[in-house]
Amino acid sequence: MVHLLGISGSLRAGSYNTALLRAASALSGDDVTVEVATLHGIPLYDADLEAREGLPPSVADLKARLVASDGVLLVTPEYNNGIPGVFKNAIDWLSRPADDIPRVFGGRPFALAGASPGGFGTVLSQAHWLPVLKTLGVDLWAGGRLLASRSGSLFDAEGALVDDKLRTQLAAFVQGFAGYVAGKRG
Q: Which domain holds residue 124?
């Protein structure tokens, strides 16, 4: 069994990225679990807060879930052609203290996906993640990419995936990444 942690980079209740992540979990298959995580409750990074109190409980919880996973799926929105600040902030917290980076990120398989109402999906946001993930030393899966564009037409009002083409692509993407992760473990 491959255990993936999926993190949605959007806080919005009706987030297409959280809906995409839930659909990935539902389509993962019998040999894969996709645990859904959001960034709710993670404060803005503050080195004074870290020095005074250590990691906030919300960060410590997400960090423990990341370390317990076999691989991580970042499901990223694209804001102003880049990484959403709230998502980058969470990764900055997870990289603290700096000497913990190899244990948390080093060599861990990561994959990128995203949904956007625009016509280009999240291609620029995903590209902006590359130097961040390289700096953290993750093993970025390059075997697939998922860019869900025009996401307003892909999900219904309750956030259920209604597009059969994307459903097929998403299932193949999750299985491809899980296969990569399993190969790295084996």
A: 2-185
